[in-house]
Amino acid sequence: MKIRVSVYAQMVMLLWGMSVISGCNTVSTPKNSVENNSAEAPQTATETADNAVDITVSIMPQKYFVEKIGGKNVRVNVMVPPGVDLHNYEPKPQQLQSLNDAKAYITTGIAFETAWIDRIKSANQKMLVIDSTQGIERIPMVEHHHEEAENYQAEETLDPHIWLSPKLVKVQAQNIYDGLVKIDPERQVEYQSNLNQFITEIDQLDQQISQKLAPLKNRKFIIFHPAWGYFAKDYNLEQESIEVGGQEPSATELANLISQAKQENIKVIFAQPEFNPSSAETIAKEIGGKVIFVSDLEANWSNNLLQVSDLLSQTLNP
C-alpha cells in the first residue's frame, strides 16, 4: 500500500513538474511568438536605439514634427517640460549636459532660445543648430484693448507661436528635413518619403479645420494669453487676449473686455493651464459664462488643433 502511494505520489509530482514546465513555456511562448511573427520589428527597434540620431528641441510640438519626418531614425529630447511657462523657462544644468549627445538642436523662435542659445551652442560645439523658422514671416503680438488703454506703449513683439499654423508647420517641416539630411545624408530618401507623407497629413488637417470653422458667424474669441494669432489668421478668426507681454489687464481693460463679451454674446473664455486663470474666471463670472482650458503645447499636435477647432465651433455658435 505504501509502495502504491509512493508511486502515485511520484506520478503526481512528475505530472505537476511537467505542468510547471509547460506553464513556463506558455508564458514565454507568446512572447517568442510575437517576436517571431514580427521578427524584424524588435531588430529594427534595436537598430533604431543604436543608430538613431539624437535631436534636441525646445517644445513638445516640435518633437511631433521631428518624429514625423525622422521616424524610427531619430531620438528626440525636449527641453521645456509640459505644464511650464515657456516664456520664462530656464533649462536645468543636467539638460545642458544632455546636449553632449545631440547631433542637432532645432529652434522655433521662442524667448528662452534667444536668451540661452549661446550657452546651448557652447554645451556642444559640434551640434548643428537648425532654425525651423527660416522663411517664415512672423506677425506682431499687439492687442486691441491694450492699444486703447491710456499710458500704454505697444511693443511690437513678434509672435513666436508659429507651430499653431498648419501652413507654417509645412515650412518648419521642410527646414527640419533639410537639417536632418545635413547630419544624416544616408537616410535622405527615407526622410523625403516621411516629409511627403507629413505634408499630405497637414493638408488634410488644414482642410478639416477649415470645414469646421468656415460656417461660423461669430468669429471672435477671448483667450488669456495670445498664443493663437497664427491660427486665427489662417482661419479668418479674431483673437482677443486678456493679457499681453506677461501683463495682467488693468481694472479698466478688464471692464472693457467684460462689456465686449456681453455685447458680442461671448460665453466662453479660453485660458492656458500654464497661466493663472483668475482674470479669465472674473470675466466668465461677469458674463455668466465659463472658462475652458486649451494648450498650445500638447504632444499630439494634430489632435490638439482638431480639438481646439471643435471647441471653437461649439462655443462660437452657441
From TrEMBL:
One GO molecular-function annotation for this sequence?
metal ion binding
Which Gene3D superfamilies is this protein grouped with? Nitrogenase molybdenum iron protein domain
Q: Which domain of life is it from?
A: Bacteria
Claim: Transport is one of the keywords in the record:
yes
Show the PROSITE patterns listed in the entry: PROKAR_LIPOPROTEIN
- Keywords in alphabetical order, please: Signal, Transport
Q: InterPro entries from the xrefs?
A: AdhesinB, Bact_metal-bind_prot9, Lipoprotein_PsaA-like, ZnuA-like
- Check the UniProt entry and state the signal peptide residues, or none: 1-22
Q: Which Pfam families match?
A: ZnuA (PF01297)
Protein known as: Periplasmic solute binding protein
Q: Which organism is it from?
A: Planktothrix paucivesiculata PCC 9631
